[in-house]
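Sample entry copied in:
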Amino acid sequence: MASVDQPKTVRFQFTEKKYLITLVFVTSLFMLWGIAITMGDVLNKHFQNVLNVSKAESGLVQFSIFGAYAIMGVPAGLFMKRFGYKNGVLLGLSLYALGAFLFTPAANAASFGFFRFALFILACGLATLEAVAHPFVAGLGPQSTSDQRINFAQSFNGLGAVIGPLIGGYFILNVSHGATNDLTSVKLLYQAIGVVILAIAVAFFFVKVPPVQNAHASTDADRPAGAGTGSLAQPHFRWAVAAQFFNTAAQGGTWAFFINYGVEKMALTAQDAAYYFALSMVLMMVGRFVGTFLMRYIAPSRLLALAALGNIAMCLLIAQNLGWISFVALMMLNFFFSIMFPTIFSLGLKNMGAKTEQASSFLVMAVVGGALFPPLMGRLADTDIATAYYLPIVCYAVIFLFGYRFYKVR
């Protein structure tokens, strides 16, 4: 927290002029992994159609994606600490592109296992980008506005999350509707994605990045007497890791079966359900911009707790299978969900000082929740997709506790 005598102009300074180009570029990275994550949810339904896998089995798509976060989190943090933020970004983009290109042999083999391996490599790139980009963008200005910068950058992650289902619905589900085994569209789409990501990596290689400050360094005045220096020694950080685990668990499960809900409960085509999924991502993007603005007046922790309560209410409505009321509630999950990931991340990194990179790695590893939850939720969804949405309530209850009480740096 800023000291009392700190000038207000510094307290609310969003960034500095020297960081503008870097901020724009790093912010674009948030959009790139937003596209990749929601494309995975489209692939979830596509593989059910063309590879004849069950909902529980298709949940392994999310297991492959988010499981990579658990494995790559620490190596990404160590790489970033030794070689810097810029090289961390380049590594992440390279793995992203490699995973996209691996979709070609996976499609040729028509192998669900091969696709999962390609997604795993791609997600190792996403995990690296997330581990790097959050402390990177947080460091492009003072600690007092790091929550605002991360939420602003995550707003573009929301834009990517909108683009992903639109691309997938048009190029993948449109083809698969009525098809028996069409993976050509998947192969061609991911070839194009790989080329684009490689081009962005080359462009970033030539960007001159100015020295970046550690926005989460703590001063002697900030650090309470007797506070631990290890990343796991701080109670607020341990709770942040737990909250992030359950946060991504809820995200992985609710997103994985959104299209199934639209098809089974609303009688939509898979393509139309994907477009509604994109609309729900618009609500998430709007929620992040609104949340960034509200954080000037409402403490981020309090806003996080309110958002968790909102999603508990939405899950209760979804599970009742009330037609359009429940389907609108399903879309509104993303509005309340919008600020959760970046806010938990930023609150967890507060006053971590020299342990910021390590702490970022643990918060990225916590994304493994998104790997473990979808298969479990898929088992319930195989029986009834609506009642499966009772499960995320447990996740949002943990997030509420973190935002209401356990976020405090001690």
The chain has one domain: 15-211+223-406. Residues 1-11, 176-181, 219-228 have pLDDT under 50 and may be disordered. Residues 99 and 194 are 8 Å apart (CA to CA). DSSP finds 17 helices and no strands in the chain.
